[in-house]
Amino acid sequence: MDASQHAPIPSDARTASSSEALAPESSPDDSKQIAAKQERRRKIGRIAGRWFAALSAFTLAAGLYLNAFHLTMEGMLCVALLNFAALPVVLGSGLTWAIAGLRGLHKLTGLALVSLACATSVTLPTTHVGMQVAALFSRPALDKLAERVRAGESIAWPTRAGLFLVVGIRTKGPIVALLVHKDPAGHSALVQFPAGSRGDADITGVEDLAFYGPMYNLNWDVALGSGWRYQDEG
User: Fold this and answer.
1) How far is residue 71's CA from residue 184's CA, in Å, rounded to a whole number?
2) How does pLDDT run across 6-44, given as a tens digit for each residue?
3) If residue 105 lies in a helix (H) or strand (E), which one and from where to where?
4) What is the per-residue pLDDT for 8?
5) Percent of the chain, pLDDT > 90?
6) Cα-based distances in Å from 53 to 44, 49, 59, 99, 123
7) Which of 4, 95, 169, 230 could form a disulfide with 222 if both were Cys (CB 3.0 to 4.6 A apart)?
8) What is the mean pLDDT of the chain?
């Protein structure tokens, strides 16, 4: 009998052979399942990214619209309700997009973009940027309408002045208030203070109600440039 048949098997060889016997073999089906899961994850990320982009744009646009044309207590309440309803969905879809749809440094960039979009949706409508931009584009028409009022022309109300629908007027000397909202609790107006009229330092108190030109008891007094201000009564 050959002596090699009785030679002991090295321990390393026994360990290797037993490990090979216990190790599961990777089959093509397993690879396909992993690839399918990754594809589903990426698809969910893409869908969430579209929702995040659309909802972020809608929330910001709606907030700026309300800020520009409904800068009243009711309008700001609508902004608050809009943010309360939309931001959780924006945040959830944004996080899903960043985590499931992005990789590496792109994931950190996506998370930063989600944070920026949520912060902008909350803060920008409260900075009066919408009102100031709308007034800037409408200034030539507002100037012309204010001059017609001072000249005593007959004007049919409501009338359009740039982006704003003016529903009436108030005057106090040369100061003209073009009313853009009428409400029993208080009106809102774009007010022009021409050169030589009472300035910002002339806000006075009468019976604890602040008044400024022809407008009284102000909730908002927003500078719009070139002698124009937006004022909302409480």
Assistant:
1) 16
2) 555 454 444 444 444 444 555 666 677 777 777 788 888
3) helix 105-123
4) 55
5) 54
6) 14, 6, 10, 15, 18
7) 230
8) 83
Strand partners, 205: 210
Residue 134 has pLDDT above 60, yes or no: yes
Q: Calculate mean pLDDT across residues 163-183.
A: 93
Domain extent listing, the chain: 28-127, 130-233
* Sequence-separated (6 or more) residues with CB below 8 Å from residue 173: 197
CA distance 41 to 46: 9
Query: Count of alpha carbons within 13 Å of 86, Cβ hemisphere only?
Result: 24
Q: Between the CA of residue 167 and those of 54, 156, 160, 164, what are the distances in Å?
A: 34, 9, 9, 9
Cβ 231 vs Cβ 191: under 8 Å: yes
SS3 72: coil
Q: Which residues lie across from 160 on neighbouring strands? A: 165
- Give the distance between the most distant pair of CA atoms in the chain: 130
Q: Which two tokens stand for residue 175?
A: 């100061």
In this structure, are residues 159 and 141 in contact, taking their beta carbons and an 8 Å threshold? no
Q: Which residues pair with 177 in a beta bridge?
A: 170, 191
What does the pLDDT average to over 165-189? 91
Dihedral in degrees, nearest 10, Cα atoms 81, 86, 89, 91: -100
Neighbouring CB atoms inside 10 A of 42's CB total 14
Using one digit for the tens of pLDDT, what is the confidence trace for 61-81? 999 999 999 999 899 999 999
**Other residues' Cβ atoms within 10 Å of the Cβ of residue 101:** 20
